[in-house]
Amino acid sequence: MTEWDIRKLQILRTLSERGTVTATAEVLRMTPSAVSQQLSNLSKQLGVPLLVAHGRRVRLTDAAHLVLRHAEAVFAQLERADAELAGYLQGEAGEVRVGAFSTAVPALVVPAVAALRLSHPAVEVRIREAEAAEAYELLAGGDVDLAISLAAHAPTARDPRFTRVPLLADPLDVALPAGHPLASAEGLRLADLSGEAWIFGGSGPWSEITTAACEAAGFVPEQAHSAAGWTAILAMVEAEMGVALVPRMAVGGERRTGVVTRVLNADQPLRHVIAAVRRGAEGGTAVGRVLDALREVARGQGGHP
What integer is the mean pLDDT of 173-201? Predict the structure, then answer.
């Protein structure tokens, strides 16, 4: 393959613009002999004559003009690369791949991306939905640059592979059928629902979160139905098939007229949402912009980790 030397191509382009070796040397702060030597070397590298004598001056050959036509495309691409690199160094450009659990995507990631499009449009975010544990596997394997997960189901803060960033303390509310006797009860506590039929996942993070919250309130929940998606869970609550703990962040867009969501005043359980990056990557400017945007969205939701 032909060897293309960018510096020598720049000299050839300047000669085409300035017309003489002397003028080219002045612009490039070189000696005329150095300019001539560099162009001679380029001619040998490409295997074609680039200059011919024309009186006391030199003239570019047809081959030289052909080379310059292609070189201009290269120079234009390098200019774009320089501009993007400058933006990257200033935190204005870069691609960040985000792995996030399902409810965090619409509640946190999408609003953060929307804000970044206005404040830092050259920061590109690619989203990959993943379960809480899978997000960390993707992060460790280099498949994503930032993982959003639940603190209870993430590696510990002592794990040397990751830097964890708290985002949100998401309250868990109780979803009750609209006609339930406790739907309008004052001072509702989780323990008041110990005798109810419960709806939650059969396994995984949400099963553990529900059972842990109920056990902390002094009872083991009786699981009447198993479901993982909030649409399915709320549909069963609306049909008076049971009650459920629902994260406030997850059900914002799942309002149903037959469901009453009650805040637990005395024993409000929480789930802690965190972001994580590979240790050391938090200093990356594009990653930092995404983290800042996520924190801002979390603050807007009233979350305090």
Answer: 92
